Description:
By secondary structure, this protein is an alpha+beta fold. The chain has 13 helices and 7 strands.
Amino acid sequence: LDVISRACDPSRTSIVRHDSNRGIAAARNSGLAAARGEYVAFLDQDDLWLPRKLEKQTGLLEARPDCGLCYARHLYFRKAGEGFRVDMVAYPDFHTEISEADPSFVAGKLFMNNFIAAGSVVARRKAILEAGGFDENIAGGADDYDLWLRLCRGSRFIFLDSIQLLSRIHSSNFTEKSRTADDTFVVLARAEKDLRIPPEIARRSYDLQYYKRCRFRFLGGDYAGALSDLQKASSISGPRARYRAVRALIRLGRSGALLFAASRRASLSARNLFGAGPMKLSGVQFDTLKNGGGDC
């Protein structure tokens, strides 16, 4: 906070403090309440925005007053030796046309997968407040997903087809990720009713979440929970041979988890909900990307 105070113009910057840690949703709501501008954006303390991000996205929203939220491409990165490991996030073609899509189509796609990274968003403050802001009873990691699902009922979204957010990956806390997955089920149950999601889409989404939580529980040491989730998600587990292979790894317990984590192919396959692909960048290449250079 001292660094922020020295770096920012006090006439344009306010620092809002909580007496205790009330969670990320409460922090974001306090920021929304203190904000006075038309637009808001969210940046976690260890992520990076690319240059001109806010300018580009507010420009899109200015041109489209019917849209309440603009999101952009992002990627994940972490330090790897002298360089950086970068996981690119795939965005299918429908994103470029999402501002013209029927709201029910957007709701269905979003219900299947939270494809909006909070740090990539610029939104109209009024639209977020009218949607009810962030639910402080939902753990961090699912509170933003809950808001996007509520927001899509009354606002159109628009997509900026270039990378604007670099999201840092830390050492994995699979127990925490499992708790976030638990809250995701709460979010989906509420949205299924409010958005009138067709049963087939709802079933597929729940299956994907079970499979995702299966991996977190497995790598976190909760093998009984992982096996239970795998069985619930068996309808999307692919060929029976693959299902049996994953089940066998789970039953190996810690040895299976170590084998699974060491297998690059298996790890990527299990977390392929985003369609991420790995890439290794040198420090110089990463700095070029971070500073807005290269093909973003």
